[in-house]
Amino acid sequence: AFLAQRRSDATAELATELLSRISERLPILPMALVCEALAQGKTDIAAISDHLDHRGEALRAQGYPVHRMARDPRESVLIALRMLQSRKVLDLNADRVLPTLDGQKLFAFYARTLPQIPAQETENFTEEKLEV
Prior knowledge:
Layout (H helix, E strand, L loop, with lengths): L9 H16 L4 H10 L5 H17 L11 H14 L3 E4 L2 E4 L1 H11 L7 H4 L4 H5 L1
Antiparallel strand pairs: 1-2
């Protein structure tokens, strides 16, 4: 049925459709959310924990399966950060994260795996809105 319709680039359109269907079913893991926060420049564990909690809830509200390693967002963040530390892409110093240059590339890679929700659907979860 897909190929029966006239399409300008059937291969690209099929790939887009398949990736969309896959992303709707793959669980969103804390590691990707932590990396997204790090890619955005967050280096404070509390800010990363807030990101994990709020972004995860926004994605869950859109119907995406969001997985947690622990009930407490901070604990999930610490687990993910320890994994990243073992890969030598960041250092932990008290409640601060010190990313390496290679770490920034890895964080961006993982962050790109997350679905993008239009801005109006996530605007209540931005740091600026939380401070108001």
